[in-house]
Amino acid sequence: MAAKGSAVVVLATGASQIAMLAELTRADIDWTKVTVFHLDEYAGLGIEHPASFRRYLQERFVDRVTGLKAFVAVDGDADDIAAEVARLNRRLAGETVDVCFAGIGENCHLAFNDPPADFAAEDPYIVVELDEACRRQQLGEGWFPTLEDVPRRAVSMSVRQIMKAQTIVLSVPDERKAEAVAQAVEAEVSPAFPASILQRHPATTLHLDPGSASRLKPGAA
After folding, report:
1. Nearest CA among 198, 182, 64, 65 for reference residue 119
2. Strands, E, within 2-43: which ranges?
3. With a threshold of 0.85, does the pTM exceed it?
4. How high is the pLDDT of residue 220?
């Protein structure tokens, strides 16, 4: 912001981001110069649903900062999801993302790019199918009452778009993420382990706790 006069950031959701967002809202930042893009959202889920990521970010971030320049949310229950994706892609076109805040899923997904992830998709936002492991994670975190209630599709920022961010900050707590963290850090880069692509990003930081780091080999991180 000091150099450019403004900033563009991407925010993620889920249990892994709660503490990070709480810290971010307390930071001394001039939010009137910050545009926030939404990383992903379930297709067909209204903002009134407790699992809505738009609702999550509205309550945990947007409502807690003053004068945010813009919040570009994904309208997951738009009547025409293809048109909504096109709108988002036009909005993001020409923008440089300064910081992308994200996590890693239990199946090593990055955003909602489940394995095998599409590393070649050029569009900033895409519609993706959610695999069962991803959907079970959402159930396990308490966002839905049954597996059948978890949507099967989502709008997600693509892997290539995430990789274009100048800086990526990953917050990945909890032992249930330990295997995914090990895959992301130690496995060969592969669509089978979507977050492994971040090994090729020049400015990614990975924030772990003892549980999520428990399966890393000594010195791996």
Report:
1. 198
2. 7-11, 34-38, 40-42
3. yes
4. 54
